[in-house]
């Protein structure tokens, strides 16, 4: 359970931005960047907005099932012009089955982009500080290929770090491949991913693109969440970040991905 957000001098502004992001999410619309309208918003404020939105989603019946890490690779940092990792929360309503066709209108996806990642499923609780990549591998039941579909409630993806953190690290939906592999069975830093969009090559990347090793990114998140008193829980899914640049997704598109040694994953989109 996430603690209630403490009062701060900015708390009414924080609550207002949480409300407008939730409205944009539920209506499938965009809003102007928060950072342009409230220049004093800090990254800490943005995480408070994100947690308020999560609280509301939980109050409305969604269940927290994990976390996502974003902007972990140089390719994504350069693409989004955001230069530090961040995190968001995964709920059951964002989780789809491998191979599913996602309706953009039904699920209120507005400007989606596909990312190929490695997902971790935890077999133990884990809480920072002091968590290492080895601790993450020890606490992991399996890893699997994953498509995260990021989406932004901010107009034209005009985000900076504050905008995207407040907007749940631009999380949309995700699917996880059906092959589940023990985390030490292959060297995840050397795992080679290839993405195809509508049968054509669309991107590739190595596990090492994610902070040197995907487990390193997960350790970063365990330690960062530790500062907020938030633990990783046994059974949670952690998306460790894109191995390659994001790819625009539209109705009719089919994305497939193969990570050598880990298996495959696919997702498609319709109106
Ligand atoms: O995290 C963000 O703010 C934007 C999304 C990025 C990713 O999901 C990623 O780099 O994997």
Automatic annotation (TrEMBL):
**Per the database record, which ranges form the Fumarylacetoacetase-like C-terminal domain?**
81-265
Which molecular function GO terms apply here? Answer: 2-oxopent-4-enoate hydratase activity; 4-oxalocrotonate decarboxylase activity
Ranges that cross the membrane: none
SUPFAM superfamilies (alphabetical): FAH
EC number in record: 4.1.1.77
Can you tell which superkingdom this protein's organism belongs to? Bacteria
Give Gene Ontology CC terms.
cytoplasm
A Pfam family this chain is assigned to: FAA_hydrolase
Q: Which UniProt keywords apply?
A: Lyase
Q: Which PANTHER family match?
A: 2-KETO-4-PENTENOATE HYDRATASE, ACID HYDRATASE
Protein name according to UniProt? 4-oxalocrotonate decarboxylase
Taxonomic lineage per UniProt? Answer: Bacteria, Pseudomonadati, Pseudomonadota, Gammaproteobacteria, Alteromonadales
């Amino acid at each position: 359970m996430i603690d209630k957000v403490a009062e701060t001098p900015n708390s009414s502004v924080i609550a207002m931005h949480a409300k407008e992001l939730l409205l944009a999410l539920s209506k499938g619309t965009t809003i102007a960047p928060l950072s342009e309208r409230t220049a004093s918003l800090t990254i800490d404020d943005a995480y408070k907005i994100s947690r308020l939105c999560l609280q509301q989603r939980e109050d409305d019946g969604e269940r927290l099932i994990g976390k996502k890490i974003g902007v972990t690779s140089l390719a994504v940092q350069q693409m989004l012009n955001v230069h530090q990792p961040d995190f968001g929360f995964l709920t059951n309503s964002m989780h789809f089955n491998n191979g599913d066709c996602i309706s953009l209108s039904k699920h209120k996806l507005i400007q989606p982009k596909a990312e190929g990642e490695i997902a971790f499923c935890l077999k133990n609780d884990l809480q920072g500080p002091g968590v290492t990549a080895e601790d993450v591998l020890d606490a992991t039941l399996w890893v699997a290929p994953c498509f995260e579909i990021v989406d932004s409630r901010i107009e034209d993806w005009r985000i900076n770090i504050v905008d995207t953190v407040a907007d749940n690290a631009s999380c949309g939906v995700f699917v996880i491949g059906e092959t589940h592999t023990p985390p030490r069975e292959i060297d995840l830093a050397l795992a080679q991913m290839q993405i195809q969009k509508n049968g054509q090559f669309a991107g590739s990347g190595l596990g090492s693109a994610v902070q040197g090793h995907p487990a390193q990114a997960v350790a970063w998140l365990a330690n960062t969440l530790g500062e907020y008193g938030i633990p990783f829980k046994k059974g949670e899914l952690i998306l460790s970040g894109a191995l390659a640049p994001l790819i625009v997704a539209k109705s009719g598109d089919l994305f497939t991905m193969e990570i050598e040694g880990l298996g495959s994953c696919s997702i498609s989109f319709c109106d």
